[in-house]
Design brief:
It comes from Cathartes aura (Turkey vulture). The protein is an all-alpha fold and 354 residues long. It has nine helices and two strands; from the N terminus they run βααααααααβα. The protein has a two-stranded antiparallel sheet with strand order 1-2.
Length: 354
């Protein structure tokens, strides 16, 4: 029994073709939207590529850009088919291409669904990328005189100001690295010498943070040095008092920003996938309804359209049998080649008669 079997007369076929033509052009605009989202996400990721450890995060925008281009191409082509289907003479040239085209549409819809899922599932990969990238970026914060790294201070400062964050996981991350350049340290000072000698790596570590960690909304002047030294500041207890530094780490802030963006894009791509699937089903109904016309010379006669000629169970069973036949055929060929190779490797025995 055919799946989604529908009876059509000429009027219904014409309405279906016109509706599909319109839907295909809506899908072209949807493809442009997907392409634009991918381009926007790629630009946003490139803006902060210095604090990302690898290029894996660009898989999502690149996939969206590709899906957008393919969507425009596939749906533009389908729109032309639907338009020509109103004229039997024009439609005849498209008939041999419809089955392969529908097969391509099926795999294309699987890809769209896969890309939508990736948009939701990239959070874990993005988290590790940001964690390592921010850690490396903070290490290079002080290298304002080093070629290739002199921009990192500005990048980190602008990032912390824009996203209202501090450090990788929090402001205490700055206590573990030397973020002040040696150029601005007085090595004749006893305090500087003592601090450098106080750790194995010989780094100048302070319980302070860059100015970009300060929260301008705080009524108290920013305490960015000696943050953990209560006696250095009047009426201050860093463990109980609400600090005038950003509490949230930049990894969490960026992860939330990009995850929200990707989730929204994933939802849009899912809607596009549903729309594309409905277009593919409609195109299949149009294809089968036109092919099943009993008398091609009488376009007004009734016909039947379906999505699958047999039930879903029978179709899957038939597909599995076809795959098994292909597998057996390949196995027979491989055995034949192996047998030929063994025969070719044997050398005939020569018997001498005395």
């Amino acid at each position: 029994m055919a799946l989604l079997k529908v009876k059509f007369n000429q009027k219904k076929r014409v309405k279906l073709a016109q509706g599909l033509w319109l839907m295909n052009w809506f899908s072209v605009f949807a493809g442009i939207l997907v392409f634009s989202m991918g381009l926007f996400l790629k630009i946003e990721l490139r803006k902060r590529s210095e604090v990302m450890d690898n290029s894996e995060s660009h898989f999502v925008p690149n996939s969206l850009i590709l899906m957008g281009i393919l969507s425009c191409a596939f749906n533009g082509f389908a729109g032309k088919i639907c338009y020509d289907s109103l004229d039997p003479a024009k439609f005849a040239k498209w008939k041999p291409l419809l089955k392969p085209y529908l097969a391509l549409c099926f795999f294309f819809n699987i890809l769209i669904f896969f890309v939508a899922l990736i948009c939701f599932l990239m959070r874990g990969s993005l988290d590790s990328t940001l964690a390592q990238g921010l850690k490396n970026g903070m290490k290079f914060y002080r290298d304002t005189d080093t070629p290739g790294r002199c921009f990192m201070k500005k990048t980190i400062d602008m990032l912390q100001i824009e996203f209202k964050c501090c450090g990788n996981n929090g402001f205490k991350d700055w206590f573990e690295i030397q973020w002040i350049s040696n150029r601005y340290l007085d090595f004749s000072s006893k305090e500087v010498k003592d601090r450098i000698k106080s750790n194995v790596d010989g780094r100048y570590l302070v319980d302070g943070v860059p100015f970009s960690c300060c929260n301008p909304s705080s009524p108290r002047p920013c305490i960015q040095y000696q943050v953990t030294n209560n006696s250095a500041h009047y009426s201050y207890d860093y463990q109980t008092e609400e600090l005038n530094l950003w509490r949230r780490g930049c990894r969490e802030a960026l992860l939330h920003y990009y995850s929200s963006m990707m989730s929204s894009m994933g939802a849009v791509v899912l809607l596009v996938w549903l729309f594309e699937t409905s277009v593919m089903v409609g195109l299949r109904l149009l294809h089968t309804s036109l092919e099943s016309i009993a008398n091609p010379e009488d376009p007004e006669c009734e016909s039947e359209g379906w999505v699958l000629e047999n039930s879903l169970k029978d179709t899957l069973k038939s597909a599995l049998e076809s795959l098994k036949k292909i597998g057996k055929f390949n196995q027979v060929e491989a055995d034949a080649e192996r047998a030929e190779g063994e025969e070719g490797g044997k050398t005939p025995a020569i018997t001498t008669v005395s």
